[in-house]
Amino acid sequence: MTTLSTNATGRIGSGPIEAAVAPRSYLQEVRERFLRKKTGLAALAVLTTLALASAFGPLLVPYDPNVGVATQRLLPIGSAGHILGTDEQGRDMLTRLLYGGRLSLVTGTAPVLVATLIGLAIGATAGYLGGLVGALMMRTMDMLYAFPAVLLAIAVAASLGPGSKNSILAIAIVFIPPISRVAEAATRKVAFLEYIEAARLSGASTTRIVATQVLPNIFNPIFVYASGLVGLSIVIASGLSFLGLGARPPTPEWGFILNSMRGAIYIQPWVAALPGLFIFATSMSCNLLSDALRDALDIKDA
Amino acid sequence: MGLLIARRLGMAVPTLLGVTAIIFLLMSVLPGDPLAGLLSQEATAEDRARLEASLGLDRPLPVRYVTWLGDIAQGDFGYSPYRRRDVAELLGTAFQNTLRLALPAAAIGVTFGLLLGAAAAANRGRFIDRAVSIIAMGGISVPSYWIAILLIIVFSANLRWLPAGGMSGQEGGLIDAVKHLIMPAVASAFVSIGQTARMMRASLVETYGQDFVDTLRAKGLQGHQILLHVGKNALSPVLTVIGLQVGFLLGGSVLIETIFSWPGLGQLIFQAIAARDFKVIQAGIVVIATTFVLMNLVVDLLQMVVDPRLRKAT
Q: Is A135 near chain B, with CB under 8 Å?
C-alpha cells in the first residue's frame, strides 16, 4: 500500500506498472477530469482575466470613469488614447467598462451566494425533518415558482427601490426556491443512510447532524447547481440596472452603460454594443465552467 | 384518468391562492402613496380619510385581500387613476399584444431547438454535436436585451431593413406587421432555442441508450422507424421545458418590450411600476402568474397523454 501511493503520480504509463492502477484520491480524479475539458479551462481563463482586469485595471488607467471631455464624445473603437472609444459624455469606454466590471461581477455573484446560504438552510432542514413541516416549507417555496424569474426580480427590486443592495436581494429571492429544492432532494437521499443513523445513535443533536453529516455530503450537487445560476444572475443583474433598477448613476455598471449608450447606436454602434459583449462573455464563461465542474464532479441530476 | 385530471386541477388552486397572497403582500409593502393621483393638492386629512374609507383602505389587510380576491374572480381588476382606464381593459389589450409576440417567438424557439437538439443527438460526439452544444450554451447565456440591441444595429441602423421599434396597427397590413415582429421575436427566442436544444439532445441520447432500442434493432427496424419510437419516449422532459418556455414568453419580456416599444404586458407592468400604478402592477402580475400556472397544468396533462405510465400513477 505504501509503495503504491508513493509511486502514484496519477498519470497512466509513467513509471512502474503499479502507477497505472495506483489509487488516486477523489480530488485528484476530479482535477484530472476538469483539466481534460478544454471549454472549461478556456472559461476559467476568461473569467479570471475579467475578474483581475476589473479588480486591478481601474488602478492602471489614467481616466476618471465619471468625468468626460465634451470635445471627445463618441469616439470610435481604436481612437488614439481611447482604445475602446468614448461614451456619449466623452468618458473613456475602457475605463467605464473596467470600473463597471467591479459592480457587475459583484451584483451578479452575490445573489447566488446569499441564495445558496438561505436555500441550503431551508432545503436541508425541510429534507431532514420531512413530514408535514418539510412538506409545508417546500410547498411555500413552490409558490414562488409561479412567477417568471425576471419578472419576480423586477417586481421585488421595484418594491424595494433602486440600488445595488436591493438588486442583489431581489435576485437572491428568485434563486432561493430552486436551490432549496435541490438541497431538499439531496438531503432526502442521504438522510436515511447508515452514517446519519450512526451519528444519531451516538447522541448527536439534529443541528449537529445537519451541520457535520448532511451538509458536507450534499455540498457537490448544490455547488454545481448554484454555479449554474451565476451566469443567469449576471444577466438579470445587468438587466435590472439596464431598466434603472440596479446601480444608481453615475456609478458605471455594464447593463446601465449599455442602456445609456442606446441613443448612440446610430453614431457609434460597436462602442454602444461593447458592454453587452462583456455581460455575454461573463455569463457564457460561467455556464461553461459550471458544465465542466458538473462533469468533473460527476453529478448527474442537479 | 378523469379523477387524475381533477386532482391535478385541484392542486393548482392552493398554488394560485398562495400566488395571489404573495402579490398582495408585495404590493402592500411597496413604497409610495396608493392615493396619489386621486387626491387634489388642497385635499384635507378629512378628504383623505373619506377616500380611504370609500376604497376600503382603512380595513385590515386580510379583509382587503379577500375582497380583492372576490373582485378579481369576477374579472373586476379595478380602475387605473394613472391611465384613466379600467385595468381589465388595459390588461386585455396588452395581453393580446404580448400573445402576438410570444407565439411566433415560441414557435421559432421550439422549432430551432428541437431541430438542433435532434441533429446533435444523431451526430453524437461529432462536430455537429459540439457545435450545437456551444450554440445552445450561447443561447442560454446571451442577454436578450443585448441581442435586441445588436439586431437593431445591424438591421435598422445599418441595413435599414426593419423598423427599430413599435408594433404596427391595422392600417399597415400584414407585411408591415411581420417587419415589426421579426426582431423582437428573434431576440426573445434565443433562450428557448438553447434550453429546448439541450433538453432534446439529452433526452434523445438517454432514450437511445435504453434496452428497448436494442430490441427494436434486433427486430430489424430501420433507423427512421427507431427514431419514431425513441422520439415518442424522449418527448416527456422536452415537453416540460417547452411548457416553461412558452409560459415564460407569455409573461411578456419587460426588457424586450421596453427596447422595441412593444405595448405588451411586460411594458405595461414596467411603466406601472414607474408610475406607482398599484392596481395595474397587481393585476398584471396575477395574470402572468396565472398563465404560468395554467401552462404548467396543460403540460402535465399533455404528459399524461404522451406517457401512459403517468396515467396510472397515484
A: no
